[in-house]
Write a structure and sequence with these properties.
This protein is an alpha/beta fold and 262 residues long. It is 19% helix and 33% strand. The longest helix is centred in the last third of the chain and has 13 residues. It is globular. The structure holds flavin-adenine dinucleotide and FE2/S2 (inorganic) cluster (FES). The site of FE2/S2 (inorganic) cluster has 11 residues, from loops. FE2/S2 (inorganic) cluster binds next to loops.
Length: 262
């Protein structure tokens, strides 16, 4: 884990409420894995006091990318940081996605801004066989992924209101894809998004015994495993009651989480 004063290479809007920031730090970029995140001090001083967690959504040379949605004070402050500015960043943190030869056809399922860590994963997968799908509320909220990273696979899109792509939840697209996965050609799921969506994906995966890694979000204070700010309930069969998202996640096997209690 590194604390760096990373130089902002660029910081620009992609949609009405989503921005892309490129930060220069050879140390963080050189060691980051898909699924890991950084804690950003959005400005000097004590307001806001806490760093904010953001997934690393890609790496290009010594640059690492953050795709962030403006939801409150910290993210609003970030939109005002110009190129050339410096930002205190702690990372890379967390465990990241585990990738193995046994994964078979990999299915990446994103909901909204949850696409950030999956973009990094999709980029790292290169020419390996995978499907990448993402759900958004409406066409005007769709993140133009080609402006973030060059991907080897097109993104399948769904919108809740049917203004672009499939009309309905992204889990419809997932179920369509999973029908193509037989016993001879296993699938595995990698997902990040709102909790309701993660619950649905975990249920679909669990029903057919499909391996599923979920990247969880939680409010974070320290980001280092020292407080209880980020805990999620462990599944009843686990030998413990909760996990720290920051230090034991943010990526978990879906079977580790108590989805009834989330
Ligand atoms: C491991 C991890 C990775 C993340 N990656 C990204 C990312 O790549 N891009 C991105 O846009 N966001 C990401 N988030 C969420 C991001 O950290 C919050 O949106 C951010 O901290 C909000 O800060 P704020 O000061 O703008 O909003 P605040 O003023 O702190 O909060 C505004 C609103 O956002 C909600 N909120 C705050 N923090 C979180 C959170 N952690 N999860 C869900 N809702 C929250 C609050 O409940 C409140 O309703 C990630 C969170 C975690 C834990
Ligand atoms: S944020 Fe403090 S333990 Fe995870």
């Amino acid at each position: 884990m590194i604390e760096d004063q990373a130089e902002v290479a660029f910081n620009r809007p992609l949609t009405s409420d989503t921005w892309l920031m490129g930060l220069r730090s050879a140390a963080i970029s050189g060691s980051a894995l898909p699924g890991q995140f950084v804690m950003v001090r959005v400005r000097k001083g004590v307001d806001p006091l806490l760093r904010r967690p953001f997934s690393i959504c890609g790496v290009e040379g010594d640059l690492f990318l953050l795709l962030y949605r403006v939801v409150g004070k910290g993210s609003a402050i970030m939109t005002g940081i110009a190129a050339g500015g410096r930002v205190s960043v702690l990372g890379p943190l967390g465990n990241g996605f585990r990738i193995s030869e046994d994964d078979g056809k990999m299915v990446l399922v994103a909901g909204g801004i949850g696409i950030a860590p999956l973009l990094f994963l999709a980029h790292r997968l290169g020419s390996r066989e995978f499907r990448f799908m993402a759900g958004f509320g409406s066409a005007d909220g769709i993140i133009p992924v080609q402006e973030v990273l060059d991907l080897s696979r097109p993104l399948q899109v769904s919108t809740d209101d049917g203004t672009q792509g499939h009309h309905g939840p992204v889990t419809d697209l997932l179920q369509g894809t999973l029908r193509e996965c037989g016993t001879g050609s296993p699938c595995s799921i990698f997902t990040c998004g709102p909790r309701g969506m993660l619950k649905s994906v975990a249920r679909i995966a669990g029903k057919d015994g499909i391996a599923c890694q979920v990247s969880m979000e939680a409010s974070m204070a320290c980001g280092l495993g020292a407080c209880l700010g980020c805990v999620v309930p462990a599944a009843p069969r686990e030998a413990r009651t909760y996990y720290h998202v920051c230090s034991e996640g943010p990526v978990f096997d879906a079977t580790m989480i108590d989805w009834e209690a989330v």
